[in-house]
Amino acid sequence: MMLPTTNDTDASLLQSLAAGNAAAYRLLFERYWDAIYSSTLQLTKLPDLSEDITQDVFAMVWEKRTQLTGIDNLQAFLFVSARNKIYSRLRKLSSQDHYEQYLRQYFQEIRHQSGEAAIYSRDLELQVQRAVQQLPPQQQRAFCLSRFQGLDHEQIALIMGVSRVTIKSYLVQALATLRKVLSHYTLPVLLGIFLGH
Q1: CATH architecture entry for 10-93
Q2: Membrane-spanning residues where (predicted)?
Q3: Which fold, 96-195?
Q4: Cα(160)–Cα(163) distance, rounded to whole angstroms?
């Protein structure tokens, strides 16, 4: 199997991606990240939200990679996906304060629980550790530096000797994998893991 190159068309890269080729994913990621992020930032005016939405779009690309081979205009598909995610996120913002208050209360309660709830929390922590250990080495390292040590993408890129875009790609793929592996846990618990570090 030949490695994809930057000269490959989107259609060719989507075919390789459908076969699980991570290099094709990385090329598409590098090809479209800046454009999707910029358009998202234009609409939201919020850099953090724009980055989250762009990551969500690329996580969706990885998760649905086998279903994307028929797309004629990938760039348009990515822009529409990002726009839809923005609208969805904005609809939820009205209840965001209430939800954040709920999450804070949920995690305070979990810290003070004993018995079955404490066992559940320890089990979750163990499952997360196992899931992280199953990630490919580069994704694992990037995820741990980001979530457990609190480093930003720039710092991780310097430590790992790769580009910031590559770090974003590693994190998007790692989060997509972890979401799938840990999908049987409740959303608030997963948010605590992925956002709480």
Answers
A1: Orthogonal Bundle (1.10)
A2: none
A3: Arc Repressor Mutant, subunit A (1.10.10)
A4: 9
